[in-house]
Amino acid sequence: MSNYSNTQEKLSRDDMAQTVAADIPSGAFVNLGIGQPTNVSNFLTSEQGVTLHTENGMLGMGPVATGDDIDEDLINAGKIPVTELPGASFFHHADSFAMMRGGHLDVCVLGAFQVSEAGDLANWHTGAEGAIPAVGGAMDLAIGAKQTWVMMSLFTKTGESKLVEALSYPVTGLGCVSRIYTEVAIFELRDGKVFVRSAHGISFEELQSKVPVELTKA
C-alpha cells in the first residue's frame, strides 16, 4: 500500500518543523542543527519525552527563548537563546562530542547545501572563493547519530536542485542521510532508492522533471 500523498500548498518553515517534530520517536535523544532545524524544538510535545542535546554542552534543552525567558548565558550551538526543561544538565564540550561520536544520539536534524541520492551530505562549505567554512560538529553528528535527517529548501535561488546524483560541494559525511524535509517534498532514502513520501504544491511528475535523480512514490 502506498504512503505517498500530495497537497496543494508548499510547506512553510513552521510546517516543516512541525512535521519533523511529529516524526521524532518518543523518548529519543536528538540534536537539532543551526538554522531551520532549531525551529523543531518549538513543536515537540511533553508527551513525546524527547531529550534535546546541544553540542556546546546541554541535555534537556527546551524551546527557543523569547521575551523575559531570554538568558544571554543560556544559548544553543547556534548562539540562539534557549530554555531549559526540568532535569536539564550541563557538561564539558568534550563530553558533548563523546555523546555525538559514541552513537548515543537517536536522531540529528541538519541543514544542507546538497544531499546525494546515496545519502551523502554537504553542509559546511560550498567551495566558493571567500566563503567562510563552518563545519562545527556537523561531521561528528552526521556520522555519529543513529539517524541523520536534513531540513533544507529543495532548490537554490537560481533553481538548481539540492538533491543531486553526486555531491559537487565538499563532503560532510558519506551515506548518512536517511530522510530529507523540504518545502515541496519529503524524501526517504533507503534500499538504494529515493522515495517521495509526500509532495506539496507540486505534482510528482513536475518534481521528477526538476530533480536529477530517479524518484519513487513511497
TrEMBL record:
Q: Report keywords, A-Z.
A: Transferase
Alphabetized SMART domains for the sequence = CoA_trans
Report the Gene3D superfamilies cross-referenced here. Glutaconate Coenzyme A-transferase (3.40.1080.10)
- On whether DNA-binding is a keyword of this UniProt record, the answer is no
According to the lineage, what is the superkingdom?
Answer: Bacteria
Q: Which SUPFAM superfamilies match?
A: NagB/RpiA/CoA transferase-like
Q: Does the keyword Cytoplasm apply?
A: no
A Pfam family annotated for this chain is: CoA_trans
Q: Which InterPro entries match?
A: 3-oxoacid_CoA-transf_B, CoA_trans_fam_I, NagB/RpiA_transferase-like
The family this protein is said to belong to:
Belongs to the 3-oxoacid CoA-transferase subunit B family.
State what protein this is by name. 3-oxoacid CoA-transferase subunit B
User: Which organism is this protein's natural source?
Assistant: Glutamicibacter bergerei
